[in-house]
Design brief:
Order of helices and strands: EHHEEEEEEHEHEEEEEH
Pfam families: AHSA1
Structural class: alpha+beta
CATH superfamily of the largest domain: START domain
Helix content: 25-40%
CATH architecture of the largest domain: 2-Layer Sandwich
Largest sheet: 7 strands, antiparallel
Distance between the termini: 42 Å
CATH topology of the largest domain: Alpha-D-Glucose-1,6-Bisphosphate, Chain A, domain 4
CATH class of the largest domain: Alpha Beta
Number of strands: 13
Strand order of the largest sheet: 1-7-6-5-4-3-2
Number of helices: 5
Family: Belongs to the AHA1 family.
Strand content: 35-45%
């Protein structure tokens, strides 16, 4: 029998949006598509079903709390070894039009729980940072999620050195630095909005939140606020990732 561990992570963030805008972002499929992972659906109401479609995998869950504008929670289906994840969002409006959001991420992790826990501890704040960028710059719009995978490299330094070169950045890039790259003959310009070197590069353009994530293999978790074909966009970014090495 594999070893399992309970966990709970709590994250707080102030968001530049109304509670209604935050609710749309965290409790609707198109809203979640615009800052989190995969292609999502949410069946409204307690007991409703949620799904998150990722390449080769679909995560399903059940809504356990549904108070529009205040409280949203869902719990994933448990695996055979008992592992599962649950997400709880608590929303509180603040003076001046901002909103305080608390995320409680809990559940049971499997045998490699330490590695999983560390990834969640570091990754959750980055997703919340993307949520803040979405609400500040693209509120009221919904994105097409674009997931693409680059080729495996020999080591992390090789992978990220190629990415920084291809985006016109120095190896020690920082938030606020200008980004320039060419995808399918189209020039893309933006600014670094999140930098965790190496491991995560967030770029904001006029119509997208571009997210490059990974170690020896870099993948995208882009959110494109334009009328694009998801499959075609994923092919373009897969080719781009392959071309930078």
């Amino acid at each position: 029998m594999s070893e399992t561990h309970e966990f709970e992570l709590v994250h707080d963030i102030d968001l530049p949006a109304s509670p209604e805008q935050v609710w749309d972002a965290i409790a609707t499929g198109p809203g979640i598509d615009s800052w989190f992972m995969g292609r999502n659906t949410v069946e409204p109401g307690e007991g409703g079903a949620t799904s998150m479609e990722l390449p080769g995998f679909t995560a399903q869950a059940t809504v356990t709390a549904w108070e529009p504008g205040r409280h949203f929670a869902y719990r994933g289906q448990a695996a055979e070894d008992g592992t599962f994840m649950a997400f709880e969002y608590l929303i509180e409006g603040r003076d001046g039009g901002s909103t305080a959001l608390r995320l409680v991420h809990s559940g049971i992790l499997g045998a490699d729980w330490e590695e999983q826990y560390d990834a969640l501890r570091q990754g959750n704040p980055l997703y919340l940072r993307t949520l803040a960028q979405y609400l500040e710059h693209f509120a009221g719009r919904h994105a097409v999620p674009v997931a693409a995978f680059g080729p495996q490299q020999a080591d992390l330094d090789t992978a990220w050195a190629a990415l920084t070169r291809a985006t016109g950045l120095d190896k020690d890039f920082q938030e606020g630095d200008a980004v320039r790259l060419t995808v399918d003959g189209q020039q893309v310009e933006g600014v670094v909005d999140t930098a965790v070197v190496p491991g995560f590069l967030g770029v904001r353009t006029d119509n997208a939140l571009l997210r490059f994530v990974g170690g020896e293999m870099i993948m995208t978790g882009h959110h494109v606020f334009a009328d694009v074909d998801q499959a075609e966009a994923e092919r373009s970014w897969t080719n781009w990732l392959a071309s930078i090495y």
